[in-house]
């Protein structure tokens, strides 16, 4: 199936032409037929002389109903642009063209209607001129009259050629923009819309936006015929289980679960914008119209904050309209649906520069390089990567993340440093827990620590991350006791535990001897053990005393007892850094390092 939207000024003959082409009535409402004017979207379809069906979404031309018009053309990629021969280019011709250009619609046919009322030549020339410089420049033009039938066969052929040349819909997840919802007796809620990408089948579970509710497809109709499944592009009526009619309306979307994230903030490239935009605008994309707050970041970059979350992908096109002034102020391309916060001075300017360098459809490697690391599923919901795609070359894939190789190397180095520092401070338990390692090394997710340990030549096992050679291994209770002792000595370096303390800790002479051998403790004298760093600290403190100094002055400087101070001074004497002058006094022989 192909779907073509109409466009053009009010009363220029859009609905009449759709009626002539399809034999169906696009103006569904009695009021529309009474007033001879389209108010809401109309739907009709036909075969253009081949096996395929072409459906038309007929839009209103009146300025008052432009929101309906935008909901109709939003999900559609081809247009039948109608200009009346007897009136020529008008205000809504221009507004519709601006919308189509902003939405990047590039496929269309120009139908100059009512050519029985005036020579179509001038209107064609004028329209061609206006289309120049837009995505619709150079589209074929056909003069028609719905009254005499002139040109209808040519128009049909031209439309068929147009549909044949339409690119296949880009492969992607299912997303159906709802344009109507109603209730059918016996079936419940039915929504209709254009399925612009993906496939929908009976029994599928879909997510309804913006509510986020899961709904199940109970039945499907395409052009009034029951179907089991439908591929894009399709006009579809979807019967939904477990949803009341007031829970869904135009602008909502049914999407494949897991394929989109609810976007409420995004950075966009503005197309054809005025220098300054009003801060409050309406965003139109698909069939949705959502209030947005605009923050300009640079001449053609802005951050949009959406009042209602939308299921959007990077690279999509939409437009901004000023509902007060009643005109389209800019088109935009979505560049980033997970934009970074702008907190510091100059952030906005830097962001604008970064956005200016981005492509509308970035590659996975570009996105990963830009972010350093990103969850794989975040790139899927951003529309940069398809669920089934292989991980691209030049990107590290680990633990559900895609990581820039430079960042990966930096993390491995930081992990090595963190492990070394930990092991130096905790020689008895040199393994650091993955969480702590990730925190210290600035690694985004502790689940990456295993892979990074391997990268850095480290080991992750039950004992945490550590180097390959961890020296002496103590039984766990001894290690815990020694850790406790070291921790206390760390806080009070000269408060060597006494015999009772050591017994309570369960540390025997053998354990303490092994700890000395392992370089964890030093033995000052029988029963007095300190950290290897204690002598240097002891020296620093006595160096601050007036020389010579006494045992009791040293004891006070070290905040310890004579039991420790006396042998520690003898230890320092032995090292030759202090010297005894007489029974009571000593002096420093070397400046401490
Ligand atoms: N003479 C003549 N009249 C036409 C032709 N096409 C449409 N009309 C008339 O033009 C008027 C408007 O036609 P519509 O088809 O309702 O125009 P529209 O573009 O759908 O208008 P809106 O939906 O309100 O924007 C009607 O009175 C039609 O009968 C044509 O080819 N020749
Ligand atoms: Mg109409």
TrEMBL record:
Primary site of residence: cytoplasm
Role according to the record: Translation factor necessary for the incorporation of selenocysteine into proteins. It probably replaces EF-Tu for the insertion of selenocysteine directed by the UGA codon. SelB binds GTP and GDP.
Listed Gene3D superfamilies: 1.10.10.2770, P-loop containing nucleotide triphosphate hydrolases, Translation factors, Winged helix-like DNA-binding domain superfamily/Winged helix DNA-binding domain
Protein name according to UniProt: Selenocysteine-specific elongation factor
Stretches assigned to the Tr-type G domain: 1-166
Places the protein is found: Cytoplasm
Record GO terms (molecular function): translation elongation factor activity
UniProt entry tagged with the keyword 4Fe-4S: no
Cross-referenced InterPro entries: Beta-barrel_SelB, EF-Tu_GTPase, EFTu-like_2, P-loop_NTPase, SelB_WHD4, T_Tr_GTP-bd_dom, Transl_B-barrel_sf, Transl_elong_SelB
Pfam families on file: Beta-barrel_SelB (PF25461), GTP_EFTU (PF00009), GTP_EFTU_D2 (PF03144), WHD_3rd_SelB (PF09107)
Keywords per UniProt: Cytoplasm, Elongation factor, GTP-binding, Nucleotide-binding, Protein biosynthesis
